[in-house]
Recover the amino acids of this structure.
């Protein structure tokens, strides 16, 4: 199957199904050609990335098992090409700093058109 | 304000004599109301404040917490409180302005409430109180309410729970036991030949005996789930969840023995010539229609019939009784 | 309404996690330290089944901050802390060294504020995500036994269902941690469910 150069793959990592649905819907309305996969925890995300490397990834922080920041750190150490946006309701300074030090950005939840635009902007510029 | 109040008073007069700071700002933070109290404690008069943005009126900064609270009230129309404990002095307000004197800011308690203007604009009402006065008031209220609370549920003679508390607690304990299907025990306790004691020793001695028995009963319970209450006159009641029948019986005997061991002389009580109690116990998992209290009372009656200074156990459910026989 | 389905509960959990995040941010600005707040679970249970035991509250005295909300649905939200915890949280939030006795004088107001921050954060998250606004009374603080508080709640609202959230709160460097119980009772949780469904509809 010929793949359009604008077709990108995105992995959504969030323990909330509703949150994953929300991100997926918003992204697809802006980038209908993207191929999206999902993981409900950090461990699954790491396994999925190893199997099928995505271009981009959105990562929740508070999840059962390892935290999103730990998962992001792990993924970036092994696959530095993946661009990760951390989506969290917790935007205290310590988390912002941690995100920056990993080379990702922290976008405040809730998932809205505006926060998705910030994430897409980051993905676009990172290419 | 009611129509009646509007007819008789000017809103402005009230806002100006009230012992509380009032500021109203609109959605753009422009000041619409600035009462005398605020003028007095900020040193800024009304004419200099009205129609100007709040941020520009004060020459000193307002605290960041105050500003973000204000923003939240406007965005979500939810009321916000800023307590003295956590903020102290959000606004540059002072108790008095005296020339050539370094003043420290007034401790404040602030609440911000969304209000709607007649033109349907979203505005915020900021209320400021001098918290040194509210601290004193709270101290008084606190001690007052604690006395009331204690009086409402404590028996004044014996200092154990009163009938009112028992009634409320019993209802809850039964409901809990029903729902969670665990067993509940009720112990009805009555001092034997108490009328004769009162007649012979007098009411003051009678009150003392009641107090001593109450204290002794109370000493026998230790779990947070258990209560002992004065049911009336010389009658007491204990409510205890999770006791198997055998333990409940042992406990009833423990109660009887503890009072017996007080060895309070009672010349008109045969054959021991000292104060004793009779105990009626009922244990079971209550279902609809069951009445633990009536059963315990019936058991107490039997204990009296059989010669007093003893306990009688009755199971809540008849079938349990048959099974045991 | 009998109960919420899995997706509706998930949506509510997400709403309250975001509320918790906002509350943590506000609190961290006050204490100047990282504050962690999480919402491990949201439950809706029949009000007949609610008691201190089902909420796993002990028999001590509790501080309760309550606010009444009105709008698309009317609700009473209640936040419960043990009295001991309340004092500890307040003392950690305050910068000055105060005796516990002095502190008690401030407890009432400070707990109102703490409760107000958490309740408002949850409500503002609801407003943003589920797209409705509620009017609210100022917070009210009472100290009583858990059963007294629950009895009053049941009497006031007379509703068949109560929503319960267990909230974990920790102030990072103070080693203070507490579990708060958040109760939302309403005569018409149905209206809340309608809003959740309207929110879920376009994304599912």
């Amino acid at each position: 199957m010929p793949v359009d150069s604008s077709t990108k793959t995105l992995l959504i990592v969030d323990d909330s199904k509703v949150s994953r649905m929300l991100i997926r819907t918003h992204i697809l309305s802006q980038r209908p050609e993207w191929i999206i996969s999902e993981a409900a925890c950090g461990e699954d995300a790491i396994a999925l990335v190893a199997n099928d490397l995505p271009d981009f990834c959105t990562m929740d922080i508070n999840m059962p098992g390892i935290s999103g920041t730990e998962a992001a750190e792990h993924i970036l150490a092994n696959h530095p090409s993946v661009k990760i946006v951390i989506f969290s309701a917790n935007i205290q300074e310590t988390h912002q700093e941690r995100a920056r030090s990993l080379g990702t950005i922290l976008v405040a939840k809730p998932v809205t058109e505006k926060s998705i635009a910030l994430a897409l902007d980051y993905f676009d510029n990172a290419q | 304000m009611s129509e009646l109040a509007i007819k008789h008073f000017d809103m402005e007069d009230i806002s100006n004599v009230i012992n509380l700071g009032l500021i109203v700002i609109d959605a753009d933070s422009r000041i619409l109301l600035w009462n005398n109290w605020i003028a007095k404690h900020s040193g800024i008069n009304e004419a200099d404040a009205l129609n100007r943005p709040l941020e520009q009126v004060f020459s000193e900064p307002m605290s960041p917490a105050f500003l973000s609270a204000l923003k939240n009230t406007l965005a979500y129309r939810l009321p916000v409180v800023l307590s003295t404990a956590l903020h102290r002095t959000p606004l540059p307000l002072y108790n008095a302005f005296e020339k050539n004197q370094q003043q420290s800011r007034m401790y404040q308690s602030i609440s911000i409430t969304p209000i709607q203007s007649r033109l349907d604009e979203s505005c915020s009402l900021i209320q400021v109180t001098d918290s040194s006065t509210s601290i004193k008031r709270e101290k008084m209220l606190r001690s007052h309410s604690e006395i009331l609370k204690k009086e409402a549920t404590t028996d004044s003679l014996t200092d154990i729970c009163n009938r009112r508390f028992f009634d409320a607690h019993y209802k809850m304990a039964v409901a809990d036991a029903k729902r969670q299907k665990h067993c509940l025990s009720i112990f009805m306790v009555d001092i034997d030949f108490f009328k004769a004691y009162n007649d012979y020793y007098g009411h003051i001695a009678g009150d003392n005996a009641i107090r001593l028995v109450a204290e002794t009963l109370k000493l026998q319970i230790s779990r947070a789930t258990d209560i002992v209450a004065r049911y009336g006159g010389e009658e007491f009641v204990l409510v205890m969840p999770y006791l198997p029948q055998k333990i409940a019986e042992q406990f009833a005997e423990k109660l009887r023995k503890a009072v017996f061991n007080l060895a309070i002389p009672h010349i008109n009580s045969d054959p021991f010539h000292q104060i004793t109690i009779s105990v009626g116990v009922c244990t079971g998992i209550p279902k609809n229609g069951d009445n633990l209290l009536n059963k315990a009372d019936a058991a107490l009656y039997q204990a009296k019939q059989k010669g007093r200074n003893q306990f009688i156990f009755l199971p809540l459910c008849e079938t349990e009784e048959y099974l045991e026989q | 309404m009998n109960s919420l389905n899995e997706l509706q509960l998930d949506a509510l959990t997400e709403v309250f996690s975001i509320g918790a995040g906002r509350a943590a941010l506000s609190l961290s600005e006050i204490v100047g330290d990282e504050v962690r707040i999480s919402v491990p679970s949201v439950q809706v249970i029949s009000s007949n089944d609610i008691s201190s035991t089902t909420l796993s509250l002990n028999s001590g005295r509790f501080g309760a901050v309550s606010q009444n909300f009105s709008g698309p649905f009317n609700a009473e939200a209640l936040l419960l802390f043990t009295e001991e915890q309340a004092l500890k949280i307040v003392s950690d939030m305050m910068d000055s060294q105060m005796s516990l006795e002095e502190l008690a004088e401030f407890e009432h107001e400070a707990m109102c504020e703490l409760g107000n921050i958490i309740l408002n954060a949850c409500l503002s998250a609801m407003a943003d995500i589920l797209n409705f606004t509620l009017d609210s009374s100022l917070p009210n603080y009472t100290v009583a036994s858990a059963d007294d508080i629950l009895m009053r709640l049941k009497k006031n609202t007379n509703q068949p269902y109560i929503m319960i959230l267990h909230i974990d709160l920790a102030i990072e460097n103070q080693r203070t941690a507490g579990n708060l119980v958040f109760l939302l009772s309403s005569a018409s949780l149905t209206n809340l469910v309608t809003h959740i469904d309207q929110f879920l509809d376009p994304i599912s």
User: Anything to note?
Assistant: The radius of gyration of chain C is 17 Å. The CA atoms of residues 45 and 54 of chain C lie 10 Å apart. The interface with chain B takes residues 26, 29-30, 48-49, 51, 53, 58-59, 67, 90, 93-94, 103-110, 112-113, 116, 120, 123-124, 127, 133-139, 147, 151 of chain C (CB under 8 Å). The mean pLDDT of chain C is 78.
